[in-house]
Design a protein that fits this description.
mainly beta, 8-stranded antiparallel β-barrel, 1 helix, 6% helix
Length: 235
Amino acid sequence: MSIARHISLLLIAAFALLAPMPAATQTVAQTEEYKFDLGAGIGMSGYLGDVNDSFMFSHPGVDCNVALRYLANTRLAVRAVAGVSTLSGSSADMQNALPGGNVADFSSTFYHLSARGEFNFFNYGIGESYKQLKRFTPYLAVGIGGGVATSDGNTAFGLILPMSVGIKYKLKHRLNLALEFTMTKVFSDKIDSPALDDPYLIQSSFLKNTDWTSGITLSLSYEFGRRCVACNRQD
C-alpha cells in the first residue's frame, strides 16, 4: 500500500471522528482550565521547487511533528513545533526543461523547528455556557523558525516561515484532535539538493529563488498544567 493511500485512510478516519457527538459534557457547571497542550502529529508532506513546479503532493512523503502549546485563552495560543519531513521530486514530471535537457531528481530529509502564533475563530473548549465555548473551531497559525535538510551526505540550512490553516475538535475535556494544512516558505534553494541550487542560472533574488514545503497532518494532544481560576474579588 502506497504512502498516499495510508495518509488518505488516516484523513478519512479523522473526519469520521469529527462527526457530531453528544454534548452532555457541556452542561458541567464549572470546568477546569489548563495552561499547556502537548501533542504529536503525522501526515503527508509535499514539495515545490526547482524539480516540481505544479502539484505539491505529486511525490508524497511523510511528515511527523511534536508540538507544545501555551494556551493564553480560548482564542489565542503560542505553539513550539519540532518536526521532520521526507521530500522528493523529479524534473522528468515537469513541462519545463532544465538547461542542457538534463533530468534531475532528489530525495531529502528536512528537520525543522519553529514558534507559531495561533488564532481560533471560536472560543474553543468545553464548559460554562456563558463563555460561548465550542468544542470545534477553525484556526490559523503563522510563525518563524529554521530548518536543516540532508541529501546524499550534504546539509543545507534555511530560515522558514510556516503558515497553517486547520480545524480542532475537543474529543474530551483535555483531549484534542486537529487536522492541519501547512505551507512553509524556506529561505534557501538547497533543501532539495545542493546540486539544484539555481539550476536555471537565473540568479534571482533571495526571496524568489527559494523552495517550499507543505504538509497535511492529523494530530492528537493532551492539556496539562491546571490554571488557577479562583475569583479573589471581595464585594
